[in-house]
Amino acid sequence: MATDILQGTLDTLVLKTLSWGPRHGYAVARWIKDTSDAAINVEDRALYVALHRLEERGWVESEWGLSESNRKAKYYHLTAAGRHQLKQKTADWTTYANAVFKILRTA
Amino acid sequence: MTDQSGPRKLFRVAPTTKHLQHEIDDEMRFHLQARADDLIRQGYSASDAERISLHEFGDVSAARAELASIDRRRMSKVALREWLSSWLQDLRFATRGLRARPGFSATILLTLALGIGANAAIFSVVDAVLLRPLPFTAPDRLVHLWETFESNVGNRSEASYPDYLDWRARNKVFADLGGYHGGSFLVGGPQPMTVGGARATANFFDALGVHALVGRTFAPGEDAVGAPRVVLLSYGFWQRQFSADPRAIGSSITINGGPATVVGVLPANFRFARQGGAEIWVPIDRPQRTREQRGNHWLNVVGRLKPGATIESASADLSAIMRELAREYPQSNSGRDGKVVSLRDELAGSVRPVLVLLYGAVVVVLLIACVNVANLLLIRLADRQREIAVRVALGAGKARLMRQLLTESLLLAVVGGLLGLVLAWAGVHWLLSLLPEHHLRGLPSLTVAGIDPRIVAYAFVVSLVAGIGFGLVPALRLSGSSVHDTLKSSARGTIAGVSRLRDTLVVGEIALTVILLSGAVLFGRSLLRLMAIDTGFRPEHVVTTSVVFPASRYSTPASQAAVFDRLLDRLHESPTTAVAGITSKLPLDFGNSLGFTIAGQPVPDPSRVPTASYRQVSPDYFRAMGIPVVRGRAFGAGDGPTSPLTAVINRALAAAYFAGVDPVGQRLVLGADTALVVGMVGDVPIGNIDEKIPPTLYLSFARYPQSSMALAIRTTAGPDQVARPLRQVLASVDPGAALTPIVAMDELIGDSPSVFMRRFPLYLVGAFAITALLLAIVGIYGVASYAVAQRTREMGIRMALGARPRSLVGLVMRHSGWMAVAGVTLGVVATLMLGGFAEKLLYGVQPSDPLTYVVVATALLVVALAATISPARRATRVDPAVALRAE
User: Fold this and answer.
1) Would you say B507 and B791 are in contact if contact means Cβ atoms under 8 Å apart?
2) What is the 3-class SS of chain A, one letter each residue?
3) pLDDT number for residue B420
4) Residue B438's pLDDT is what?
C-alpha cells in the first residue's frame, strides 16, 4: 500500500490516532505503522502536511511541550470539531468499505 | 502504544511568520532526531542513524515550504477572525454608547440624514439626466445633426428634406441617419383630445436601435407620400387608452380626422427627450412639394456613427457635404454649414450647468453637516475622558481607541445615511411634483430619478466617506493628546487644543455658509432682474391654450378661416372674455422664420438674406396680448384672402432695415409675393425673455390660416373660470375639436426655460442656504457656550478682581466676532474663486458683484453675534465664589 494512500483517509487515521490523547508528529507516524502491522507506511512529509492541514481546518490544535527525551516537541490534540469529524468520517469509511467488500466477495 | 504523559505547556503557537518558519524547523528536527534515536536503539551507529533518518523523511526542504504555506494561510485566517471579532466588539460598544445618549445621537443622526439625504436626492436627478446611458443601442455612438446659418436667429436650424437625403447618400461616417419633428395630434373618439406626438422617417427607430415591445416599428416606405397611415403608440398611451391589450395592434384610431393603423407599441423605457411628451409616433407626411424644397427647413436629424468615426470626423464630413451643396445649389444653400453634436449633450445639455451647480451646493451642505457632527463628537470626547483613561489603564492601545472612535462615527454615518435615503425618496418625489408638466416632458429622463440600487450604493459610499471624514477629527485629536494628560486633567473635560480645533471647524462652517448664501442671493437678484424685464406686452389676465380642429374636415384655407372666425365671434359674446385673439405661435415659443428682401433695394447675396420670425394673427390679437401698436394699424376686415397682402412688423425689424424712415408704406418681398407694411408694433420675446428679440413679421390669419392655432384671451376671470365656458363655446362650434391645457400667460413666462432655470435652483439653493445658516448658528452657539464654560474659573477670578460684567460679555463677543470675520473672509474668497462656474446661469448680476457680498457678510456677522448673546450673558452671571471653588 505504501505511499498511494488517499489524503482523506490519512486525515481520518491521524484523527483516530489523536483520539487517545495528544501526540507529537513522530508518535503519530509510529503508531499508525505499528497498529497496522506495518501494512500502512505513511510518507513523513505527507503526514506533517496532513497534521498542519487539520490544524488549519480547526480539527486539531497544537502546542509545544517536552517529549519523553526532554526535547522540545509540538503536540497535537483533537478539538471538539475534530472529534465530530472523526465520528463522521469513520461512519462514511465503514459504509464505503462494506460496500466494496460486498462486491468483491461475490465470486 | 501507551499514552504520552501530559506534555508541559511551554508557550502557545507563535503568531509571526519568522516564528512560523522556526517552529516548522524545530518540528522537523525533532522528528529526525526521534527517528535517529530509535535507529540507534536498534543498533545502528549515530552517523548511520542520522543518514537513514534523513533519507527516510524525503525532501525536507520541499516539506518545509509546503508546511510554511499551510501555516501562513492558517495565520491569516486566524488574524482575520480576531480582527472581525474585536471589530464587532467595537460595534456593540458603539451601539450601546449611542443608545445611552439618545438626544445627542438623535441630533447627529438628523443632521446626517439631512446632509446625506439631500445629496442622494440631487444625485438621483443628476444620475437620471446626465449619467445614465440613454435607452438606445450603443447610445454613445448616437449624434444629432444641425444646419447652421449666420443670419438665422438661433444660429442653427433643422435640415431640409433634400439636404437630408443628400446627407444620407453622400456621407462616409454615418451608419444610418433618421429624421423626426414634433407635432400635436387630434385623436378622435367619443372625447376628442389633443395628444403630443412626433413624426419620424421610417428608419428613425432602426437608426436609434429601438425595437417595438409589441408589434413592429415603421417599415421602409411607410414614410413615402401617400403611404397607408400607420401609428406607433408609446407604452404609457397603450396602457392608458388600450389597457395594454395586445389586440391594439392592427386596430385603427382616428388621427387628425383620418384613420391610422396601430402597428406597434414602443418599449416602456423609450424616451426621446426632445419629443419627450410624444405619446404617438407617425411617419412624416409632408407633401411632395415640401419634400422638394431645399430652402424649407423642418426636419431634425439624428444619426449613428460608423465604428471608428468620431464627432469631429463626422462634423468635418458634414461640412464637406454642405460645401458641395452650397456650390450645387447656391440659391438655397449658400453660406450654410452643418454641425454634429452628441445626442446625449443635445438632450440634456441645457440642464447640465444647473444640475452641476445644485450638486455642488448640496455637497457644501453635507460638508457643513459633517463639520457640525465633528464638533459634537469633539464635545463628547472631552466628556469621555474618564472612560478613555480607564480603557488605557486596562491595556487598550491608542490604535484600538482610535478604531473604536472611528467605528462609532461609521455607525452614525451609516444609520444617518439610511435615514437620509428615506428622506431622499420623499424629497425626489416632492421635487418632481414641483416641476411644471412640460419640463418633465422635455426631460423624460427625470421620470427615472428615484431611489434605486445605484442611488443606494452612492448613499452608502457617501456615508462611509462622511463617517471617516468627521470620525477622523476626534480620533486624531485623541492620538495627539498624551494619555497622562487625560488622566490628570480636571473633571470638566479639557483635552488640550480642543477649543482651538472647534473654533477652526466653526470658521470653516461659516465660510461654507457664505458660499451658499452668496449663491442664493446672486440667484435671487438674477431672478428679480429677469422678472423686471419689460416683456413688451401685458401678460396679466391673459389665458392661453391651443385649439385644434380636425385637419381632414378643415382642409381648405376658407374653411379654416371661417371656423376660427366663428369661434372668435362666439368667444366675444361670452361675458368672461374681454378680448380674444389667435396666433400661430405664442410669445416665448420659438420657431417659424422666413427670409425676405426689401422692395426697391438690391437683392443681397443668398448667404446674407435677412430673416424674420413670422406669425399669423387675427385682428384682435395685439389688443388681447396688450402689444402696443406704435405706428399705423393692426389687421382688420380689409386684410382678407382677396385683398392685397399686408404685413405688420415689430420695432426690431424696423430698426434693422428701415432706420430713419417711416416703415408704414414700405414693401417687403416674401418669396413670390410683396407685402405692404401697414403697421409697427412693440417688440415681444420670441424665444426666452432674456434673449435678443429678433425682427418679427406678422401676417393676417385670414390670408394664411391653419387648422390649429394658439388662442389668447384677455379675461376678467381666472384661468379656472374660463375653462368651462371656453370648452362649451368650442363644442358649439365643432364638437370634434380639442383644446390643449389652459395656462395663464404669466405662468407660461414663469415656466419658460430661462425663468424656470433660475427660479427652481433659487428655491433649492435658498433652502440649502437656510439649512446651512441654521447649522452654522448651532455651531457658533455651541462653541461660544463651550468657551464660556471652559473659562468659568477665569471669569470668576476676573470678577473677583473687579472686572465688570460688560467687559466679560465683550470678551465672549469678540471671540465670536473674530471667528465670524475669519469665516466670512474665507468664504468670500472661496465664492469669488468658484463664481466663474455660475456665470452663465446668472442674469444681470456678476458673480463678483460687491453688494451681494456686503449683504451676506453683514448678515453672517449679525447672526454670529446674535448667537453669542445668550452664552455671553451667562458669563456675567458667574458667581465668583462658586467659580473659584469649582474643580
Assistant:
1) no
2) CCCCCCHHHHHHHHHHHHCCCCEEHHHHHHHHHHHCCCCCCCCHHHHHHHHHHHHHHCCEEEEEEECCCCCEEEEEEECHHHHHHHHHHHHHHHHHHHHHHHHHHCC
3) 92
4) 64
Whether the Cβ atoms of residue B513 and residue B358 lie closer than 8 Å to each other: no
Q: Which residues of A touch B3 (CB under 8 A)?
A: 20-21
Q: What's the CA gap between B719 and B577, in Å, rounded?
A: 11
DSSP conformational letter for B599:
T
Half-sphere exposure in the Cβ direction for B461 (13 Å, CA)? 9
> Between chains, do A49 and B73 touch, taking CB under 8 Å as contact?
no
Question: How many angstroms separate the CA of residue A82 from the nearest CA in chain B?
Answer: 16
Nearest to B7 among A22, A26, A49 (CB): A22
**pLDDT for res B884:** 67
Tell me which residue has cell 379656472. Answer: B720
pLDDT of residue A4: 47
Q: Considering only the C-alpha atoms of chain B, give the largest distance between any 2 of them, rounded to a whole number of Å.
A: 140
What is residue B7's predicted lDDT score, i.e. its pLDDT? Answer: 42
Mind spelling out the 3-state secondary structure of B303-361? EEECCCCCHHHHHHHHHHHHHHHHHHCHHHHCCEEEEEEEHHHHHHCCCHHHHHHHHHH
Name the DSSP letter for residue B285. Answer: -
- Which residue(s) pair with B339 in the sheet? B146
Q: With contact defined as beta carbons under 8 Å apart, do B264 and B274 qualify?
A: no
In percent, the amount of chain B with pLDDT more than 90 equals 26
The DSSP bridge partners found for residue B679 are B632, B648
Residues from chain B contacting residue A27 (CB–CB below 8 Å): 1, 4
Q: Residue B620 is placed in which grid cell?
A: 384682435
Nearest CA of chain A to the CA of B68: how many Å? 9
Q: Residue B232 forms beta bridges with which residues?
A: B264, B281
From the list B10, B62, B67, which residue is nearest A65 (CB)?
B10
The predicted structure's pLDDT at residue B167: 93
CB B550 within 8 A of CB B186: yes
CB within 8 Å: B4 and A64: no
User: Do B30 and A72 count as a contact with CB atoms less than 8 A apart?
Assistant: yes
- Identify the contact set of chain B against chain A, taking CB-CB distances under 8 A: 1, 3-13, 23, 26-28, 30-31, 33-35, 37-38, 56-59, 62-63, 66-67, 70-71, 73-74, 77
Parallel, antiparallel, or unpaired: how do β-strands B577-583 and B738-739 relate? unpaired
* Residue from A31, A48, A68, A71 to probe the interface with B (highest B Cβ count within 10 Å): A48
Substitution target from B70, B78, B80 for chain A, most A beta carbons within 10 A: B70
Rounded distance between C-alpha atoms, residue B192 and residue B550, angstroms? 10
* A56 vs B167: CA distance, rounded Å: 71
Contact B67 A72 (CB under 8 A): no
Q: Can you give the pLDDT at residue B534?
A: 82
**ipTM for the assembly:** 0.89
Give A41's contacts in chain B (Cβ within 8 Å).
none
Residues in B touching A63 (Cβ below 8 Å): 7, 9-10, 12-13
The DSSP symbol for B715 reads E
To the nearest whole angstrom, how far is the Cα of A90 from the nearest Cα of chain B? 21
Per-residue pLDDT at A10 exceeds 70:
yes
Query: CB of B674 within 8 A of CB of B667?
Result: yes
Q: Which residues of chain B have pLDDT under 70?
A: 1-15, 150-155, 273-276, 437-444, 447-448, 480-497, 606-607, 878, 883-887
User: Chain B residue with minimal CA distance to A76?
Assistant: B7
CA distance A95 to B188: 81
Q: Give chain A's largest Cα–Cα span.
A: 55
Residue of chain A nearest B11, judged by CA positions: A64
